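I am writing to request your help with a piece of structural work I have in hand. A protein sequence and the structure tokens that stand for its backbone fold form the material at issue. Please examine both parts with care and let me know of anything in them that strikes you as inconsistent. The record follows directly beneath this note.
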Amino acid sequence: MKQQENIIVGISIGDLNGIGGEIVLKTFEDTRMLDFCTPVIFASIKAMTFYKTHFNSEINFNSINNLNQLVHGRVNVFNCWNEPVEIEFGKEDVKIGGYAIKSLVAATKALKNEEIDVLVTAPINKHNIQSEGFKFPGHTDYLAQELEGESLMFMITDTLRVGLLTDHVPVKDISSHITPKLIEQKINTVYDSLKKDFKIEKPKIAVLGINPHTGDNGVIGREDDDVLRPTLHKIRENGKLVFGPYAADSFFGSNNYKNFDAIIAAYHDQGLVPFKTLSFGQGVNFTAGLNKVRTSPDHGTAFEIAGKGVADENSFKEAVFSAIQILRNRTSYEELTANPLKKSSKTERRKERDRG
């Protein structure tokens, strides 16, 4: 397994007019972070120098144009563009959205090529990133296309993990999206992630109902009885510890969530409202189910406070910690379950890179 200090953390800078630059600076101003990871910010040295000056940061960047030039123990900046960019904090700007995509595309390419080990994404603005070349609702959907596996939005803290059956889907379309196939796929993804990424040997998963009071025996909708219950029963017959559906309105308030390793919500706000209420500023958005590790903070661009120096970096810092720990857990799991007569080509490539 890789030594901790050699883990290369790629960072896409997100919306330059938001709080991304500030929280990245604040995270790595703590030089202890460099003891166990090597950050690479995908942006430009001009943009990062602007942030450094604006926020009176003492970070000394290592500017690189090739990832072979990165230096361990330094905060590296990979130049995705060279031209100056006018940064106006708090302003929604399509041109700035274009630079966020340049950063994301370059970072994702490096992740696919194993030039970085994990990816941590600073917040983007979902509106101003839309263009002819980029028509995705957000990071998760783009990464699902570019990487291998079945993606799932998994919100995590040390004590709470919430996955979603549907994520960026309009409320009016939720029930039509939730099929037995989707339910099985998402539960399997959560189950596998709990084992591989979180080292939980026998995961215990709760599933929330689709309708209020899980439909009240069909009075408030048939989806829970006709689709969700039979599918959960089938999954249980295959040996997985999956329980529910539970009425969502009382599940978190009653502390029932503490009895499970993960909770799967039917739709975005059903899961994210209680998650952020219980853990805002400490939570992490992890894209489970893919062959690479990607995390992000649990908040957005926060245009209303951008540039004021008051943004809280804790969620972003937790995203860095989580990405590193998940990579270590996943690597350990792969080594424990691999054929002992065959060395992983991935491990060999990493060793070769570290020697170089």
Observations:
- DSSP finds eleven helices and twelve strands in the chain.
